[in-house]
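Appendix B. One record, verbatim.
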Amino acid sequence: MAQATADPGVVLKIIVIDDDPTGSQTVHGCPLLLRWDRQALAAGLAHPSPLLFLLANTRALAPAAAAERVREICCALKPALARAVAAGAIGGWLVVSRGDSTLRGHFPLEVEVIAAELGPFDATLLVPAFLEGGRTTVDGVHLLKGRPVHESPFGRDRLFGYGTSYLPDWVAEKSGGRIPAASVERIGRQELEGGGAVLRRHLAELEGNVCVAVDGASHRQLTALAAAVRALAVPEGSAAPSGQGRPRRFLFQSAASLIQALAALPPQPLPPAALAGLRRRAGTTSLPGLVLVGSHVPLADAQLERLLAEPGCVGVELDVARVQRVLEGPEPRLLLASLEQAWRQRLAAVLADGRTPVLFTSRGEARCRHPEERRVLGQALAGLMARLAAALAPELGYVISKGGITTHTLLADGLGLETVELQGQLLPGLSLVLAGPGGDPDRKAGEARLPVLTFPGNLGEAGTLREAWGWMEGQSGGV
């Protein structure tokens, strides 16, 4: 099977297996699939965008379940890619495992599953830089706004924590020593900026699916890497460039910035005001919005506090400890349904008062006895928020959803969507999506689709959530 093509006249499809629904935060105009059956994959591969995102939501799962979901996706994807290539719908493909730019997630588990199902590959390129969010990699050290990322709250994550920001050592730590730090190759800034020939030569020498940690501190560096990768990968049966040898096959574990470099998309057609203008209306009247905040990182706390200071917003708190007690007690479904009804009535009352309800989980992390209990509680809370939002959806003009698990559960379970269409970024890293054409069977002909602003838990400044709400409310410049 052809993996990629250097011929600009042939469509190269970049397949992104995303571990939560926020990895499309640097691109626009492409489909995001929440299902991967034959029909959904065929439609996604036929889409004119060079990008196709598969929202795996594996960061919300335990390791074994995450591996099984990635394997399921790859097993569905492999024949779909073969059919698309044979039919001439695409000329080749690249696959990216999109992960968190603060290094949380199931690495190297997910790329190992992808390699087993879709390989072999010559190398796995580790590129966690997310420039739009201040995440850079310099001399092999991954930084958050200039500070080693392991020193941030993300490095102390109770499920995915780590103790080093030097990527070769991080790979060794996350692999339990199976991948020694000494075996991890590096591509540094000098090589990225020093000219295409040197970089292509290095990439062409890689083999055996070696892990390569790649610097990334500027768009120029990532563009150079993307150009070299594209030059080295050509369809089977095509001649490689002179002196290059055989075509090379690369797998990527990356954050969002590299995806834009690989796709080389033109500028986003819709500016922020036009994206905010997608807010649904009833006649000439703008419908109200709803804000969901499931993320509990300190940055989300600060953003929530700033938003709730707005007179136009009213907080509705989901008491996590109360939900936890209900889940552990008798008749959890019955008691949770009663709580859900009470919260729904509070949200409806805020909407009736002409203000924006902000539904948020109580701050801080709940005390859990083990990681699986934490995951179950997190999924229960996300499901509760999704059901509450879905019940109000017909009367809403927009939803802002903060947190990856919260957002995926809203789209897939609450709204029951199979695909969403990415419109672009309202603010750097904040993607606005609409339900895909076939994603909402109950939508009436001509009815506007509900805009959902997907807001990562770890992104922005203290005022960014407030600013996004201001944009959606039609306030000048979001303030």
